[in-house]
Design goal:
By secondary structure, this protein is of the alpha+beta class. About 30% of the residues lie in helices and about 25% in strands. Helix 1 crosses helix 2.
Length: about 160
């Protein structure tokens, strides 16, 4: 549907959203996340081709569902609440017993926040790959992607 036409999330979403909703039992936010996953896959193919590598139309064969902060909630008792096509379910997270496991540096830190995550089904088990994003500091917020300082902004009503 979007293959060969567009790859930006903002372009793929309006093109594919209605079909995803009609063809699946996904709720609205999960349908949006599915269109974003498709956009990312198309972008990956474009990047591979730009490096002279072969890339064909992506297909999704693994049973996965994307989650974000609207569809997933992490709790301090090491459980997670996930929205499903039926309702919400609360599940325990299988984390290492050690308090110094690498996951703890993200889960227990104010410097990191949860971002898009992926639930994968494999051999009758489910694996939640939780994504984290570090909060940007003022310098990072005020720097353009190419490393140049962003132009100053004037306060509302100012000149």
């Amino acid at each position: 549907m979007a293959w060969g036409k567009c790859n930006a999330k903002s372009d793929v979403q309006p093109l594919a959203y209605d079909s995803v909703r009609e063809d699946t039992d996904l709720g609205s936010q999960h349908a949006i996340l599915a269109t974003h996953q498709a956009a990312q896959a198309i972008t990956g193919c474009i990047e591979r081709r730009s490096k002279g590598k072969k890339a064909s139309k992506p297909t999704f064969t693994a049973p996965t569902v994307k989650y974000d902060t609207r569809t997933m909630t992490l709790f301090d008792d090491d459980t997670v609440s996930l929205s499903t096509t039926e309702s919400r379910v609360q599940c325990p997270l299988a984390l290492p017993d050690a308090d110094d496991g690498y996951q703890r540096q993200y889960l227990d830190s104010d410097e990191w926040s949860v971002t898009e995550s992926t639930l994968t089904a494999r051999d009758g088990d489910y694996f939640l790959h939780i994504g984290f994003r570090r909060h940007k500091n003022n310098t990072e917020r005020n720097t353009a992607e190419d490393g140049t300082p962003a132009p100053p902004t004037s306060p509302a009503g100012g000149s």
